[in-house]
Each structure stands twice: as structure tokens, then as C-alpha cells.
Amino acid sequence: MQSTALPTPEQHGIRAHSDGPIVPVQTRSERFRSTDVADFAPITGREHEWKYSPVAAFADLTSGELDGSRVEVEATDATGVSLSWIPRDDARVGRAGTPEERASANAWSSFGEALLVEVAGEEAKTVTVTRSGLGTAPRAAHTVIEAAPFSQALVVLRGIGDARLTENVEVVVGEGANLTVVSLQEWTDESVHLASHFARIGRDAKLKHIVVSLGGKVVRVNPSTHLAEQGADVEALGLYFSDAGQHLEQQVFVHHDAPHTRSRVTYKGALQGEGARSVWIGDVLIGNTATGTDSYEQNRNLVLTDGTRADSVPNLEIETGDIEGAGHASATGRFDDEQLFYLQARGIPEDEARRLVVRGFLAEVVQQIGDAELEERLIRALEAELQGS
Amino acid sequence: MSVLEIKNLHVNVETDQGTREILRGVDLTIREGEIHAIMGPNGSGKSTLAYTIAGHPKYTVVEGEILLDGENVLEMSVDERARAGMFLAMQYPVEIPGVTVTNFLRTAKTAIDGEAPSIRTWLKDVRGAMTNLKMDSAFAERNVNEGFSGGEKKRNEILQLELLKPKFAVLDETDSGLDVDALKVVSEGVNRAHANTGLGILLITHYTRILRYIKPDFVHVFVAGKIAEQGGPELADRLEEEGYDRYHVAESATQ
Ligand SMILES: Nc1ncnc2c1ncn2[C@@H]1O[C@H](COP(=O)(O)OP(=O)(O)OP(=O)(O)O)[C@@H](O)[C@H]1O
Ligand SMILES: [Mg+2]
């Protein structure tokens, strides 16, 4: 669904035993996978996973040679969280997923060592891992975030400064663990960042995964979550603010692969300025063993000016009839001048009225992060985006 | 003594079929504390008058003036008009997703007064006003008008009227869609604002029913974009009996 003007709400609720065939756009589980870039054909831009992306803007990252050396990392101190570099053939690499497209495979083929973030201990803690100074030459990176069984933490992976980066991030959530991962993109205006996140969630474990894309010319963060064991739960959240000439993309995949798993996907974005673009693709696959699945995904876009484009494509694939519920919703709406009039008619100046509406729209996602300081900082960052129109 | 003057107001609206003249020379003066009822058939331009006073961008004033205590209202932006003391209770209030009633009211109050209200008295005022309008306190945490019933939206408009304390209020069919109980509650709210602040009121309505609860000093019959007749409360009674048929004849004669 592509929309640039009026609200186009689209709602579907599919419950267990609902009749009518569900015809998937394509079978996600059968997609080709490899860690070797040579196994992928060169990109034409017509492939389903690339057709919304400006592929010419980052051909160096999908087919060129990449610098796979360590990137500069700075982390805050948190008891129970440790950082180290591990070799690419370490057994802890490659447990959460395998690349499904060329940028991801190129990164995998090129990285030297992986950054390992280990989380242990049941008490709540926050660690912010900041990556900066990546420069303007094409690079590859690999990160493994591992939450030990029953551990709890919030890990912020933040990117600032220049970057031309393609990377893979593996997230391994052990049994009963409760992990939040925030991928925060605050790159410079010329930066390009392509990321694939692979999460594997263990028994009765919970992952909250949040993608916040604010800065960068092209930012594409594609999180795949494998609900691999009984009772696994994922809350996948996203927030983006696309300015003039910016391309912000996220292809979200949730694979329900065990009984009684739950997923909630909520992505919200605002678009402002000529050529501001966003892409959201939400694939949910409910496998034949995933009885009792409870799943819902939604994407909402708020269009603030003319000249923007938001693509929003939900796909739901169900292989078992025995589920609790599954549904999706997608809507792209224009900033409503009547809302503006209403607020102004109550004395609120125009710029403040705009901020109020946009902040209200995006706050739903911010409020779910669960870290007051980070929430506060993101609200401020969003305010700055709004000011910079 | 505040006064709102509307002089020879002509208003156009751009439609797909081109420019359409809707208001054709409206003259009306409302003084502080006065209640004026405007009654007229569907499509006669009542809402257009209300929106034009509030400054809605869809309506273009081609001739005439609106003055508030001698100040040119037409030169003010929508929010400036509100800060100058004008208020419009809308026929169809707008939903604002993600913005709670509490946040909205505080932001509006701060904008109108030029400073934030003192927290303690403000909370008390809001709670008191909601109780008077028989609004559940849960409304405070709901998003503005989102999922509100027609009657709840109208109460929410009057809540704002009572809290923002304007000098002049235009109430556009605040009575439509209300059952008798809600009509009483809303009318009481308007009468309270009138008694407490000397509010001047332009009450737009289709039916005489609300005039049982809100007593107008003047009644104006609005037909084909201007005032066709004016009088005291007795004019409303006559309209009740005779309807607008008499004026329709006059209207077609002028076209
Ligand atoms: N934005 C607009 N675009 C096109 N036509 C409009 C617009 N606003 C008003 N009109 C037209 O102007 C005329 C007057 O409309 P208005 O809403 O002011 O009438 P009203 O007296 O309030 O009617 P009602 O009693 O139904 O509320 C109508 O014919 C209406 O269709
Ligand atoms: Mg009307």
C-alpha cells in the first residue's frame, strides 16, 4: 500500500477458525539464506526486498569491498554487562539467524571480529553502546548481544557521526530473560546504514526491540525475530522521523515457531519535507507448530507536508488454524488542518499546535521504552526534528 | 464594556465548482453579556458565519469588517482571535489523537492567559467544571474527542468555554444531537459562563428547544447568507409555529 494523501486505513483481524483463504504474498520461510555474499545475485532493485530502496545510493555496501575492522565503541558502565571482541569463527557467532539479502551477507562475509555484549544478572540495568567515528568509507560490522537465562537489561546501540555501514546484529535471549534492545540511529545527514537484526527468543523469554531512526540519508534496519520456544514474546517497536531527502526503511519479520508465543509490532513514523520517504514491511509467519499464537502488527504514518511518500506493507502468513488471534493494521494519514484549526481556535499558536499533534502521535511508542532518561532524550530529539522544518 | 461588531460581511468559499458566495452582507452587534440567537434553515450560512468569526482558512472575506472592541479581527490569526477573547464551540468538534484532554486544556489555558495556571487551583477548576457538566473524570486522560459520543463532544466544548473564559462565544448548534438531560446540562454550563464572566453569546441553532434553557435577548432569522429578520424572544416562538417558509419565498425572490 502506498499513500501520499488522504487517510487510508486498512484493518484486518483474523481469528482462529476464520474462514476464507489466507494467501501469503510469498512464503517467507522458504526465502534463500546464506552468510556468503557470493551466493547472492547482483542487485537489480527489482527484488522484493530491495524494490522500495534507493539501491544505487549504496552499491558499495551491497557489492563492494568492506572494511571489517573493529569500529570505535564507547559503552557506559553497568554491573552485569560486559563487552568484548570475539573472532568470527567463535561458536557464539551465527546462532540467531542467517542473512537473507546481499547487504547482510556482504557484512557477514567481511567482518573481522564481532562485538559481544553479554548480559547477566536479574536486576534491571541500562547500558548504552555508542558507535561513532565510523567515517565515510564502506564498512562491515557484527554484534552479538546475549542475555543469559533470567537476566534483565536494556541495551542501547547508538550510532552517531558519519557512517557508511552494513551490519548484522544478533540478539540471543536466554530462557526467562527480559531484554530490551534499542537501535538508535542519529547519524549525520549524508550517512548510509543498512542493518539486519536477528533475534532468537528462548522459552518464556521476552524481547522488547525498538528501532529509532532519526538521522542518516538512507537508514534501513530490518529486525527478524524468531520466537523459537514455547512462551517466547516479542514487542517490536519503531519510531522514525523522515525529513526532506531522507529514506528510512524497516522490514520487520516475526516468526512464530513454537506454541503460545506472542508478538506485538508497532511502528510509527512522521514524514516532513520534499522527498521524505519511509518504508515499512511487516511480515508475520505463524508456523504449523505455533498453536495458541497471539499476534498483532501495525504501522501508522503521519504525513506533515506535500512531497513525501510512505510505503506500508503488512503480510500475514498462517500455517495453523489453531491460534488465539492475529491481525494487522496500516494507515497513512495527512496532518489534518482541521486539527490545527481546532487547537488554534483555543489560543494555541500554530507551531505549538503542530508539535502537540506530532508529539502525541509518536509518544505512544516512546512511552514504551521503559527508560525515563532515554524517553526524555528522544522527546527532545523529536522536538528538534519538528523545529528543523 | 466589550463589543463585537460584524459589519456588511460578505464571505466566499472555494468549491470544486468555483467560487461561491455564502454570506451576503451580515450586520450584527453583540455587547458584553448579551445573548443573540441565530436561527435559520440548513445551508443558510450559519456555520460559515461562525467559522469566519473564528478565522477558518477555508472562508474568504471579500467585504466588510469584524471588530472586537474596535480592533480588526480579520487581521488576526486564528489563535490570536482566541487569545483576544473569542471562542467557537464547534458543530463538529475535531478528534486529536495522542493529545489528552488534560494536556490540551492546560496548553490552551497557558496560551490564552500568557502564563501557566497555578497547578492547585487549575486542577480544582478542571475537576469542578467536569463535575458540573456530569463528565466522568476518566475523560481527563482520554484523547481529545477521540471516541467521544456526540453529546460528550458537546460537553467537552462547553468545558473549554467555562475554563478558558472568553469574552464572546459562538455556539454552533451546540444543542444538536443532545437528549433532554444532556441539553439541560450543557445549557446550564452556558448559563454559568454567562453569569460568571459576562460572556456575550451568539447562539446558532436550528430548533427553538434550547431557547427554553438559554434565554436570548435577541433573535435573528438567518436566510440565504444574511439576516432576514430580527426581534426579541417572541420571534423564536413565531418561528416555532410557522417555520422558515415565509423567508424561503423572500429568498428565491432575491436570487
Ligand atoms: N467548505 C465549503 N465548501 C463548499 N461549500 C461550502 C463550504 N462550507 C459551506 N459551504 C456551503 O455553504 C452553504 C452554507 O453552509 P453552512 O454550513 O454555513 O450552513 P448552515 O446554515 O450552518 O447549515 P446547517 O444548518 O446544515 O448546519 C451550504 O450550501 C454549504 O454547502
Ligand atoms: Mg451549520
From TrEMBL, chain B:
Keywords: ATP-binding, Nucleotide-binding
All residue ranges annotated as the ABC transporter domain in the record: 4-249
Keyword NAD: no
Record GO terms (molecular function): ATP binding; ATP hydrolysis activity
Keyword Nucleotide-binding applies: yes
Gene3D superfamilies: P-loop containing nucleotide triphosphate hydrolases
Name of the molecule in the record: Fe-S cluster assembly ATPase SufC
Protein's gene: sufC
